Amino acid sequence: MILETSAKQKRLLAINNYFYRRGGAEAIFLEQMQLFSDIGWDVIPFAMQHPDNNNSPWSEYFVSEIEYGRESSLMTKVAQAGKIIYSFEAQRSIESLIEQARPDIAHAHNVYHHLSPSVFATLKKANIPTVMTVHDLKLACPAYKMLVNGHVCEECRGGKIYNVLRHRCIKGSTVLSGLVFLETIVHRGLGLYRHKVDKFVVPSRFYREKLIEWGWPAEQLIYIPNFVDTQEFTTGWDEGDYFVFAGRLAPEKGLVTLIKAAAMAKQRLVIAGTGPDEAMLKALVQELGADVTFAGYVSGQNLTRLIGESKALVLPSEWYENAPVSILEAYALGKPVIGAAIGGIPEMIRDGETGMTAISGDANDLARVLAAMADLTPAARARMGADGRDWISRDFSAAAFRDRTVDLYASLGVS
């Protein structure tokens, strides 16, 4: 039986690989679903089956679970490789869901490898307006990050995607890089993104400009920044004597630079997170005699307190970050932010007002900025954090995000 909506109620098909809070993309995906439910939309998820998924009456339409990296047979790996490129199962599942739910519009987030962009062809065939949020640089770079061996790379510009195989950009593997090379050829040949998706939501101005540089039509890319609800965050923390980094311990995060800078500036640093570089970073701390504490994986209220009681959150990235929600959360806690001047980070920091910026990859400059922030009085740092909170409560609020997205949907005939 087909479920009908009332004359006034609109139905949004929300698409993402995972239907639980796994990372930043999932957080935005789930919070957007809630925002639209709150204003009376009927929101229907489409995702991959997973034991951690939230409950949904629509889960019978989800595609079967795939978790890459697990031990599996050769035939299973071959089948999974096929789904990475083009998932017919996802097409069949979303076609059945469309027949049952009759959505007015679809909004996708991350679909790579599990659902695959094959779903966009089905949505286009069904004449459903489709929007996708750009959480990374996959539309331009086959390997998502424009990063090779720890350095920014734009060699694939102009269609030279063979470089993903030449540099073995995917985990240093010829096989995996070759698979992604083939995937990119197929997706671009079929126009699964360029011709099947109506509009792309881009959370940073930097990413929008970068995609335009790489040949994407400006009118297809709509800037709508990420958001946080400041009312969910408290302020007035008792400041401790440390700076904090929170995130994955990976090369592109700039942690070698940060540790060197902290040592030079003689500032205490707390690093929250785990990742492949952890052992190397701990050895570097010992070598330099830096005052650095590794807190391990921290989440929830413990992470909130760790950031809230810091002098400032530091993001020393050395790759094209998009629009880190962690910056917004730090402001919401009333804390200033020190960020590397790369990617979308500097547009989220009002230098000298809500935080400070440093040259990406330059330990000397970052040391200078850490020392400058430390030299301020606690009251001055608190004013910076308060100014950041005031700024995001206006321009990066949930209401602003919802209104901009509603306007976007209206431009596609859904209002």
Structural notes for this entry:
By secondary structure, the chain is an alpha/beta fold. The protein contains 14 helices and 14 strands. The protein has helices at 24-38, 74-85, 88-101, 118-125, 163-166, 174-190, 205-213, 255-265, 278-288, 300-308, 325-332, 363-375, 378-395, 398-411, and strands at residues 11-15, 42-46, 105-108, 130-133, 147-148, 151-152, 199-202, 221-223, 243-246, 269-272, 292-296, 313-315, 337-340, 355-358. α11 links the parallel β12 (313-315) and β13. Residues 1-6 have low confidence and may be disordered.
What is the rounded Rg? 22 Å
Chain-averaged pLDDT? 93
Could you tell me the strand content as a percent range?
5-15%
CATH homology-level superfamily of the largest domain? Glycogen Phosphorylase B
**Structural category:** alpha/beta
Q: What overall geometry do the principal axes of the alpha carbons give?
A: globular
Q: What count of domains describes the coordinates?
A: 2
Q: Helix proportion of residues, in percent?
A: 25-40%
N-to-C SSE series?
A: EHEHHEHEEEHHEHEEHEHEHEHEEHHH
The second-level CATH architecture of the largest domain is: 3-Layer(aba) Sandwich
Number of helices: 14
CATH topology of the largest domain: Rossmann fold
For the record, the CATH class of the largest domain is Alpha Beta
Distance between the termini: 26 Å
Give the tally of β-strands. 14
Low-pLDDT stretches: 1-6
